[in-house]
Every structure is written in structure tokens, then in C-alpha cells.
UniProtKB/TrEMBL annotation, chains A, B:
Gene Ontology process terms (BP): carbohydrate metabolic process
Family membership noted in the UniProt record: Belongs to the glycosyl hydrolase 65 family.
Entry binding sites for substrate: W357, D358, K599, Q600
Molecular function in Gene Ontology: carbohydrate binding; glycosyltransferase activity; hydrolase activity, hydrolyzing O-glycosyl compounds
Domain Glycoside hydrolase family 65 central catalytic: 322-687
NCBIfam families documented for this protein: PRK13807.1
Stretches assigned to the Glycoside hydrolase family 65 N-terminal domain: 13-266
Superkingdom as given in the UniProt entry: Bacteria
Catalytic residues (positions): E487 (proton donor)
Residues forming coiled coils: none
Listed name of the protein: Maltose phosphorylase
Length: 767, 767
């Protein structure tokens, strides 16, 4: 764990340049707008260790699967988000020597991620080998107003000399993915053109034919005056640039403003890409850097109005929660229902930038509460659009009907290739069903069920129907060979959570069928026809619901994680020699598997999702049993425990759990932030605060809150949008104030008591 | 399945050339002598599909592990037997056109593997594009008398023209392994020298520094007269050769005799390799081709005296069993205790040529009965020599003591990288312990126990001691997370076989300790000291033996393959739609895992190994339950079933099982013989005949036989060596005759009745 970042309420600040931290900072200081993302790579040449990353949302490559031993059913490829054209590049030469932070002395280095206004800045003094000193300042952002625009102001001031500064602003498509399975480059050149102050480059992927066009324009000002300079035009394979020199006297600031439009064939016709890029670029150039930056600040201000959390009395916590909210908003804007949320967002290559169950299980609540319901609806529609692929996936695995959503996907096809995960971690199907319930329950958008929801639910239920098998000797159904949410057990029988979420799906599907039959009879008939749904199917579902086998420990009166759980050596984590932790770095895989240690919430995930079906005592018995065996080696683990702990009144445990992920990336807790940030787990941290400390639940159309102030915070406040209203909830030791910031009245329950808050009204209760 | 080979009692014969069968034939017609092996690649250039393979026993390469997802504990490399210098090469040009069977018309093609005398021959007429016809005849062998010598007679006769024939005999070290993980070449050149009629080449592996030197000499005869020719010397990277032309008139036979010595740094000092090769070569050249071939025939005749099986009334069966015996004798001669038996012998690259539990479980009985006991003893010593590595392997996986032998190995280090196999298929440890019992029981060599056996047994028992865990609630020990012999279940709890063989190991270890204390007290004390064996350890072993948990089905009164077995859908193989078979080509891995279908004997493997501990009824109940669920998709499966079926009187089932592997490669039953022959399963077929139909068992120093004539055979006979005597057992429908071919009397039990057969005597009983 490295803690080198300064505490600040609104910014992430790095002071002093340590190359060992650079790749971590490249992740942490990433910028994005939901349509593109950019790691905090330097604009100028850097010969030290760096993971270059410029990502265009939805542009991926089907990288041929690499395995040791092939298993039937493995996918042909793993879809990878692509490192795309390097559009930020501005090389700098001083009297013929390249500026390279690995090759000069760096003084007064400050890197700032301004989260309030949405930009990255950097300033430092470079002392070149020959003693020349330069002051560098840069500001960079990708616009959340204009999704295809990124812009940079890059200023150089000679501090102790006068001489020639040479700038090479460029677009470079000759890039690679570090995680390429066969060390291939994925891009081909399609078009390039460089002119005075301009350049355009189109590259396309070797497979799938994704095209990305980048167009750039730059201008150079000295002491605020625009210069007319004659540039050398550079064109080479997948590269366009200008090389331009400026005479600068000591103390004169030379600023290069670079504007870039990045457009893709996902949003433009192949023949129109260059034109589209230039058009978008021109509008931005006409607006000018300062106006773009100003509209960026305004737009971020609006985002914060919807989603900010204010924590008083703990700057580290304040910074962390804003960082998490900021990264989530940078990753997914919800405007494009073909996009989703990769585990690392746009901050790295790992996990391929693809979609996991993280989205439904952890991210959805954040977007439900902090954005218009259309945003979370789009997350659901993403899966609806993949339904046919999920049905194909089930067929491929030998099922005659139904849908199995993939473990990892970009376009709906399975990408993962570990049998114990790909084929067996099927509880993901339950999370996708649960998200429909969660969305409808939160938003009240019952129309979704007839429009999209039922089809997904029915096909998932059909999958479960075949995935269980009936055991005559028991007169019960069992589910063999699964991996539950706890990936530290593989290929187990009767994982309680999976059995439970499977039956829950079938129950909910039957409920929804009943709802539609009553409320939308025509659509009901239409859907039954479309699905060719037979009565014997729903009868079977009911039979499975009635006769499902659930492993339990009658002595402790708890649900059992799986059939064989109690045969394990029941030694709690606290009694382990700490040198064994984290287990995933110290134990061989078989030892982990046969151990009692739990990677992330499993039975407890079920008690969290289906919280309204279990009483507090049940939750308490299970929590008390399982948490002490849990090593929380998934970043998605602590949040669920934190929320349950809050509900059970274990405030200290809740806060301990919250702390485990709140600053996961800022403090590089898992020693892997250089690969990218843990974006999806950030949503879990948000949940810890709002669902945990805030006690947020939605029941029967009413928003329930049951908050307390954790740790040494003096107070905290958060925003939630609920059925049209936006509420600001402020919690101190003494009182809770809920302020309705909209005109739409809201029905809420505060500490168990119902209130209606009129438009712009508030309610205040003592704690 | 392809059946293109002719039936013959002593030879494998291919008539007519079909390029689609060529790679299969390259495997089937392989020749070897336990020290080197050579696929039946053509001597002359061949541009069609071919898997080149020249293997030197014990010369391997640590090829960097390739996996999709790394798991803690995986090995760094997979050791691969290397495709080494191509020493058979003789290119042929006719008036400037290369002879290439892919580019000419081939008539009267016959390829013969003469098993009786141990050589490969080939003859055909090639019609070149320009109409020229050539008769080609070749004979090739690797000497089982001179382990480093291979020789070829290659004759060309122009049939319808007179002209120039050009020969290029060569040694080519610029070869690769098809299964290289990263498409690397593994060899570097060390030395080369070509002269008139000679050549020498030394290459070394890029890692581990194995050196292989090949030296060649050739001469050319026309119409039986040696020619003095001036050859063009060819030297290039890793290649030496001669190019030499001969004028031949229509009908004149030109024969090239090529002699090659292949020596390795395993047997010679690095500085002496070239000299050693030349010396070995010279002796062979002086003897001459015909003498070498003649001594080869004599030596094979001796081999057959020890191991032949004669089947009357079924040529296909006769050919098959001789093929199996021939390949086993070609693969392992037992003279070098650093060598072992790869699953494909020297007939292909697959499985890396490494050692599996196949050796102990399937091959040992063959060598016990058909060779001097020193041969099987060497197989045991191989593992003794790897004991330290096996202890390191256990440590790597988190055990504080004991030994876990690797799943796959070349030098004692684990090479495999699938967690469910590498870390969990630990029953292999039991097979290695069992082999010690099997060897001592068969040979009566009790001295082995004190010399080598106990150390291995004790360290394996120590492993089991830690691998089980005690469950207080049950007051029993369990073993979690294993893969049994049935690899169609992974990561199961309490695999009956593994639990049983673990306890058996501990029982046997305690027995051996007791034996040594009684019979070799000094050595006993020495060994207890060397092992630092504590009383608490043996006490613990006894406690585990007493309190081991074994899953059972009390209703059916059978042992359960594993805890969850009866929750599976119990549909027998015969009730499966045959289009699903083989499952491993049609079902996704998870579907196989949760199915009831068994790849190979599992509970039944235990009842086979520990046959004297279970009564016939118990065997019958378990056989009747498990066999119908068994798909026998391992070539090691049918033999065990066949032997048990014989014991149970299920003669038809026994014969059906025998047929499944007896001609596995000759008929390319599994459509994979092109990768190499299933060498280790050939030993299983031998067991089916001798232990199955012959009913061979050894109890208390007595050889038991209980034979019957299976199928439509009229009679069969087999040889067994037993404690110094060699017995020929001849079985007809009417009688059994056992002939003692040695001077040493033998105590045998025939159909339950004891006899002593005096030296050179016989015993005859009616059936």
C-alpha cells in the first residue's frame, strides 16, 4: 500500500515526481466522459515505465483465446477494449534535446485531478542535462458536453535561458495493447492527412472493422499572442504530426492549444468519419479552449448536484467518495444503451473493459439514485439486446431452451475461458433478473416489465429449470457443479445463493406474468405467444420453487454456503497467521478451494439482495457465522458486508468494511492500481454510504432511510433521486434533514416513520 | 475409425498410399529401442502433411507454461520430449526432379512393420511427372542391441529409363516441435563437420544444455557393387549432408546404406560426444547392414520368447496383441533407471513424452511378467530418485512435510498446469505407493523395502496425513477437493478411491515399518532416523485409518464415488442418445462434470488394486452399478473393467471391454492416432489378456491362474516370468497347459488348485 497523494476535498493531488508511482497515477488521474477515456499519460515523450491508454467506448477487438488446456464450450476469443490512437501527444524539444521526465531533473511537480470541474492539470520545472530550466504547465480534459472532444493546453516557459522550443503535436495510431494474447498489434491504417496545424488519421481494427478517426487542430501562443509558424508536416505509418519551432526568451510563456475530435464508426458512417471528425473539431476550435473548459465545469457542477456526497470531519473520506463518484460518472453516462461499465472503466486494459455481473449487482444502485431513470433503464436494455446471444450461449452448453448470460462480454457473446467460472458461475443470470426487479421497485416503471423485462426473466427461468435436476430419493431439486459468488470455492453442489437466486428468479417471473395478465392482458397474450410459453413450464417452475433443496446447518440455524461447507476446517481469519494473507498471493489454488475462507459475500449476498424476505435474526446468525471466515479479497466484498452490518447495528464493523474499499485506488490498497482503477467496486463504496450508513431501501414505492453518522465523521449528506424528486439527505449526530430539491413531492420513511415532503420542502427529525 | 491396415499375425501392413492416412501410419509404424524412437517419416523429401519425430529418450525441453489464467502453484514449464536431429533423411533427385510422394503417382505402395524381427520396410513405384518410373525399397531399424545405432537401406531402380539419380543423405538439426508453446525452436548448433560419405552434427537445447550428436556414414552400391563417388559436401546452419549422383541404367538397382549413431550428453561427456558417436558408428559400419539386421532379428526373437502372446482363431486379435507388446518393448527396455514410459512412447509429441501414473498403474504389471525383475525395479527407483523433488512439490503447495509426486514429470518436477488435475488428482501418490507393494508381492524382493521402498511410502503417508482433515462433528477424517481417477468429476469431496488408497498407503507403510523392525532392525533404526519419523506420526496414521470417512450408498450397499454422486441424474450410457458420444467431443465441460458419466474406473480401480480385500459380491454390486455409467473415454478404462468382468464371470462384457483397446491404434478408434500411439494403454490390453482372460494374480508368493478362452478364439497362450521361472500358459476350450521353460521350479495355483511345476516340467488340467 502506497499513500503518496495529498488529501483534499475536491481534488486528487500528487506532489513531487516518483517514477515508481507513475503508472498508479496514470490510472488514478484518468479522465473520461463515458464515450472515451484517457489514462494520465504524459503529453510529451516519456521513456520510463508507462501503460499507454486511450480508449474509445465500445471499440474492441476479439483477441484469440489463449489457454493451457482447451475445454469444450470455450469461446473463440476474449473481447478487449482497445488502446486506440494516442491523441494527447505533444513532443517537446529544447535546442534539439527531447523533454523526457525520465531523463531530466523534475522539480515542483504537481499533478491535480480537479474533480469539481473535470480536468487534469500538471505543472513542474524540468532541469535539462545541460542545466536549462523549463516551467511546464498543462491542462487536459475530455468534454462531457461534447462527447467526441478532448483538448489540451500545454505551456512551456524557459526559466534561465532563451532559445528554440520545438513542439511536435501528433496523432499516433501505431499503438498496442499490453495484454494482447499473442503480442499482436490490432490496428491498420485507413487514412491519414497532415497539414499546417492540422492532422487527421483513420485506423481500423484488423477484425470487426471498427474505424476510429481522430482529427486535430492546434495553435501556439506566446505571451498570449497567436503565432504564425511554418511547421514541418510529418506523415508516417499510422502517424500524422507537425513539427514546429518557436524562439522563446527567458520568462516568455509559449502555449500550445491542441484540440482533438475522436469519432468512431459506431456513431458515424464509414464514408463520413473524416468529415464528421473535422466538423466536430471545428465547432470546438471556434468555441475555444477556455469556453470548452468553462462549459465542462458547468456540466460537472450539474453532475455533482445530482450525485455529490458531503462528509464533514474526515477529508480522506470526503476525497475518496468524491473520487469514486467522479470515476463512475466518467465511465458511464447512460446515454448509449450499447455501452456498459467495465471493471476498470477507461483506466486500464485489465478484464478487457468488458461487462461483468458487477454492473447489475453493484453499479445499478448508484445510477438509480444519482441519475435519471432512463440511465439505469439503458443498463437493463443493454442486456435485453443481448438476449438472443444469451440464448445461443445456453444452446452451446447443451440446453434446449433458455438464456445464460455470459460471465464477461462485449457484444453479448461469452468471452471468459475458465471452466469453473465461464460455465459454472451462473449466478450471474440471477443478478440480471434481480436488476429488473431492483429497477422496477426503485423507479416504479412497471411498463418496463411488459416492454422488455418479462422476456429476459422467462428465458432465464427456462435456463434454471434445466440447470437443476430432480433427485427422486430426496423428492427435491438440486443444482450441481456451480461456482457461487465466493470464487474461492469451485464446482460445488447446491451453493445456497445460486439455488436461492434461481428460485427467486422463477418466483419473480411468475409474479410478473401474473401482473401482466392482470394489468396488461393484451401484451401478456402477445408475450406468451412470442415466448411460446407453455403452462407446463410455469408449472415446472412452481414445482422447483416448492421442492428446491437448500443446504442448512440446523444446529447453528444458518444457511450453508454449499453441501460440503461444514466438513472444512473452521478456523476463522483472525486465527490465521497474517503472513498467509492475502491468500490469493500465498496459497496454492487447491488449498484456497478446500479452505473455509470466503472471497466475497455469498450467502450474505443473498440476504442482501432478498433483504425483505429474511428477518434480522436470520441475517445476524448468518453474518456472525460467515463474516469471520471472509477474507474480502474481492473489492466487491466489503460493501455488502458493510450494508448488512449497518442493518444489524454493527456500526464499527460497518465502518471497518467501508474503509477497506473507500480509498482502494487512492491508497493502492491491493498493489494493483497501476493496472487501472477498481471502477465497479467504487459503486459498492457509494452503496456502503447511502444504503449502509444512510440505510436506504425502497419498499412499496416508499424510500426508506435509516441513517447514522459513522466513524469520526461529524456529519454527512448525500443526494438521491427518487421517482422524479431529488432529495438531499443531511445526517448529523443530532438530526436528519431531508430536503426536496425539486417540485415533485416525495414519500419517504425516516427511521421507520412515513413523511411526505412537498416540492422544495424539507423534513427534519432528531436522531 | 479407419481400418486400412491388413491383418497379419506378425506384421503391420499398409497397402496403397493414401496421404490422409500417412500421419496415422507415421505413428503406428514407429520404431524404437527404449533409447531412441523414430516416427515412420519418409526418408526422402515429402511435402504433404507429416509430423516429423526423432526422439532421444530423456532429452527434453522446459517449455514455458502457457495458460489462460494463472493459478498460484502452477509450474513454470512443461517438459517436452524433443523432436531431435532428423537422422533418417535421404533426399532423392531424378534428373533434377525431387522424389516427393506428394508430387508423383505412387503405385504398389507397401509399408510393413516387421514386429518379429524389428524393422520397418517400404516399397513402391513412383511415376514422376515426366513419366519416369522408379522402384523404391527401404528397410530401416533402430538397434535394440546397439542402443545408439540406426540404419537404413534405401534402394532405387529406374524401371523405364536410364539416367542420373542424385542422393542427399543428411543430418538436419533445424527441427521444431509442433507443440511448442510459443512457436520457438529449441535447438542451437554446437558442431558440424561433413566429409566424403560422412557427417557429424552436435546440437544442444537452448535450456538445460542437453547435447545430441549424430554421426553418419553411408555407401552406395549398384547391382551389389560398392561405388566410389565424389560427393558435394553440404554444410549449413544445423545441417550436414552429401550430395552424390549415380548413373543408373534401366533395371539397375542403386542402394544407399546409411548408418547413424545418435549419442547424447546423458551418456557421454560433453567433450567426448563427437568421438563417441564416431566410435559407435564405426563398429556398426564394420559389422555391416546385414549383420546388424540379423542381430536385431535375433534379439527380438529373444524378446518374444519372454513376452509373446499367441492367439489362435483370431488374426486381428493376434496382430493387435503383438503390436501392443512390440510397442511396449520398443518404448522401455528398463536398462536405464532415469527413463520412464511416456503415454505415447516415442511415437508422437503429445503429453510431452513425460511420466504419468500410467506407469505404476498400468505398465508395471507388463514389465513384471515379461522381463527380469530388475526392469520393473528400475521403474520404482525412478520415483525413488525423484523423492526430494516430490517433497519440494508438497512444500510448494503448502504442506509442511511429506511428498506429492507430480501428475506429469520428466525430472521429478511437476509440469502440469490445470489446477483440478495438477493440485487435486493426488491419487497418483497412491499408485506410486501401490507399485511398491505390487512389485514386492510379485517378485518377493522384500529387500527393496528397506533399500528404497519405505522412504517413499513414509513420505507419501505424511502427505496424506496432512491432506485429510478431521471433522469434529463427524469424529471422522475427510478429504476435500480432489479429482479421482474419473477425470469427469473435478474438485469433489471424499472420492472413495482417493480416500481408500490414502488409507491403504498408511496401512501398508505401517506394515512395512513393522516388517523392517522385525526383519531388518538395524536398517529400521537407520531409516527411522533418516526420516526423523515420530511416534505421533504413525499414531496419527493409525487414527486416520480407523476414522476415515468413506461415502457409501447403504441402500445399494455400494461404495460411493464421491459425496454428491447420488444427486446426479442416474441415466445409464445405454439410454443416452448415441449422438452425444463421445461426451468429450460433444458436451461442454460443466455438463460432463455434473453428469453421472465416468471416464475410467474409479471405485472399480480400487476394487481392482485391492482385489484381495473385497469379496466377489461386493465387487459385483459395485461393478453392476458403475459400469453402466462408464463411457470409457480414457484408453486406460476398459482393461480394468475387463479384468474385473473376468473375475465376476461376465465373459462377454470382458471381451467387449478388451476389444475397445486391443486395436485402438491399428484401427484409429479414437481418431487421434496421428498424434502418436496410446502406448501406456497397450499395457492395459496386455493386462486384459493375462490378468483378465488368464486370471493371473499373485498371493503369498504363489502365482494364481484361472483362465478361460474368450470370444471366438480357439485358444491362446501367454508367457509369464515369475520369480526366476518363465512359464508358458496355453489355454484351450478343453484344457490348460502350463509349461515351465526354465530350470527353476514354480509354485502355481491353477483354477484354485496348487501345483509345483518342476524345471522344464509342465502341468495340464482340464477346463
Amino acid at each position: 500500500m502506497k499513500q503518496y497523494l495529498k488529501l483534499d476535498e475536491w481534488s486528487i493531488i500528487e506532489e513531487g515526481f516518483d517514477p515508481h508511482n507513475h503508472e498508479i497515477s496514470e490510472s488514478v488521474f484518468s479522465i473520461g466522459n463515458g464515450f472515451m477515456g484517457q489514462r494520465a499519460n504524459f503529453e510529451e515523450q516519456y521513456s520510463g515505465s508507462s501503460l499507454q491508454g486511450s480508449y474509445m467506448a465500445g471499440v474492441y477487438y476479439p483477441d484469440k483465446t489463449r489457454v493451457g488446456w482447451w475445454k469444450n464450450g470455450y469461446p473463440e476469443y476474449f473481447a478487449k477494449v482497445l488502446n486506440s490512437t494516442n491523441w494527447i501527444g505533444i513532443d517537446v524539444d529544447v535546442n534539439g534535446t527531447s523533454l523526457d521526465l525520465a531523463k531530466c531533473t523534475v522539480k515542483d511537480f504537481v499533478r491535480v485531478l480537479n474533480m469539481k470541474e473535470g480536468y487534469l492539470s500538471r505543472s513542474f520545472t524540468a532541469v535539462m542535462e545541460d542545466g536549462k530550466e523549463l516551467k511546464i504547465e498543462s491542462v487536459r480534459f475530455v468534454s462531457i458536453v461534447r462527447h467526441e472532444i478532448g483538448s489540451i493546453r500545454y505551456s512551456v516557459t524557459p526559466l534561465n535561458f532563451s532559445g528554440e522550443l520545438t513542439f511536435t503535436p501528433y496523432l499516433d495510431g501505431d499503438v498496442k495493447n499490453k495484454d494482447s494474447n499473442y503480442d499482436e498489434k490490432f490496428w491498420l491504417e485507413v487514412f491519414k492527412e497532415a497539414g499546417q496545424g492540422t492532422g487527421a488519421l483513420t485506423i481500423k481494427t484488423k477484425k470487426l472493422d471498427f474505424h476510429v478517426t481522430s482529427a486535430m487542430f492546434y495553435e501556439i501562443l506566446k505571451n498570449g499572442e497567436k503565432l504564425n509558424l511554418d511547421a514541418e508536416i510529418i506523415e508516417r505509418e499510422k502517424f500524422v504530426g507537425n513539427r514546429v519551432s518557436v524562439q522563446a526568451n527567458e520568462g516568455e510563456e509559449v502555449s500550445l492549444y491542441k484540440y482533438v475530435a475522436n469519432v468512431t464508426s459506431r456513431n458515424h458512417g464509414l464514408g463520413q468519419l473524416v468529415e464528421a471528425a473535422r466538423e466536430v473539431l471545428n465547432t470546438a476550435v471556434q468555441a475555444g479552449f477556455n469556453a470548452l473548459l468553462s462549459e465542462q465545469a458547468t456540466a460537472w457542477c450539474d453532475k455533482w448536484k445530482e450525485s455529490d456526497i458531503v462528509i464533514e470531519g474526515d477529508v480522506a473520506a470526503q476525497q475518496a467518495i468524491r473520487f469514486n463518484i467522479f470515476q463512475l460518472n466518467q465511465t458511464y453516462s447512460g446515454e448509449d444503451d450499447r455501452l456498459n461499465i467495465g471493471p476498470k472503466g477507461f483506466t486500464g486494459e485489465k478484464y478487457g473493459g468488458s461487462t461483468y455481473w458487477d454492473t447489475e449487482a453493484y453499479c445499478l444502485p448508484f445510477y438509480l439514485s444519482t441519475a435519471d431513470s432512463s440511465i439505469s433503464r439503458n443498463l437493463l436494455i443493454y442486456r435485453y439486446k443481448h438476449l438472443e446471444k444469451a440464448k445461443e450461449n445456453a444452446k452451446k452448453l447443451g440446453f434446449t431452451k433458455g438464456a445464460l448470460y455470459p460471465m464477461v462480454t462485449m457484444n453479448g457473446e461469452e468471452c471468459h475461458n475458465e471452466w469453473e467460472i465461464t460455465f459454472e458461475e451462473i449466478h450471474r443470470n440471477g443478478a440480471i433478473a434481480y436488476a429488473i426487479y431492483n429497477y422496477v421497485n426503485y423507479t416504479g416503471d412497471f411498463a418496463y416489465l411488459g416492454q422488455y423485462g418479462l422476456e429476459v426473466l422467462a428465458e432465464i427461468s427456462r435456463f434454471w429449470e434445466q440447470r437443476v435436476n430432480y433427485v427422486p430419493a430426496k423428492d427435491q431439486y438440486v443444482m450441481l457443479g456451480v461456482t457461487g459468488p465466493n470464487e474461492y470455492e469451485n464446482n460445488v453442489n447446491n451453493n445456497w445463493y445460486t439455488n436461492r437466486i434461481a428460485c427467486w428468479t422463477m418466483e419473480y417471473t411468475l409474479d410478473v406474468l401474473n401482473y401482466l395478465e392482470q394489468n396488461e392482458p393484451e401484451r401478456y397474450t402477445e408475450l406468451v405467444g412470442k415466448l411460446n410459453l407453455q403452462e407446463e413450464e410455469t408449472t415446472k417452475w412452481q414445482d422447483i420453487i416448492n421442492k428446491m433443496y437448500y443446504p442448512v446447518d440446523t444446529e447453528r440455524d444458518i444457511f450453508l454456503q454449499q453441501d460440503g461447507f461444514l466438513d472444512k476446517e473452521l478456523v476463522q481469519v483472525k486465527d490465521l497467521d497474517p503472513k498467509h494473507l492475502p491468500l490469493n498471493q500465498n496459497w496454492s489454488w487447491d488449498r484456497i478451494l478446500r479452505s473455509v475462507y470466503i472471497k466475497q459475500a455469498d450467502v450474505l449476498q443473498g440476504l442482501f439482495f432478498l433483504g425483505d424476505r429474511y428477518d434480522l435474526d436470520t441475517k445476524k446468525r448468518n453474518f456472525d457465522f460467515y463474516e469471520p471466515f471472509t477474507v474480502h479479497e474481492s473489492s466487491l466484498s466489503p460493501c455488502v458486508h458493510s450494508i448488512l452490518a449497518c442493518e444489524l447495528g454493527y456500526q464499527e464493523k460497518a465502518y471497518e468494511m467501508y474503509l477497506r474499499t473507500s480509498r482502494l485506488d487512492l491508497d493502492n490498497y491491493n498493489n494493483d492500481t497501476e493496472d487501472g482503477c477498481h471502477t465497479t467496486s467504487m459503486a459498492g463504496t457509494w452503496m456502503s454510504v447511502v444504503h449502509g450508513f444512510g440505510g436506504l431501501r425502497v419498499k412499496d414505492g416508499v424510500l426508506h432511510l435509516n441513517p447514522f453518522v459513522p466513524g469520526h465523521w461529524t456529519s454527512f449528506s448525500f443526494k438521491v433521486m427518487f421517482r422524479g424528486s431529488r432529495l438531499k439527505v443531511n445526517v448529523t449526530d443530532k438530526e436528519i434533514i431531508v430536503l426536496n430539491e425539486t417540485d415533485i413531492p416525495a414519500a419517504i420513511s425516516l427511521n421507520g416513520k412515513e413523511h411526505t415532503i412537498s416540492g422544495m420542502g424539507d423534513v427534519k427529525v432528531a436522531r
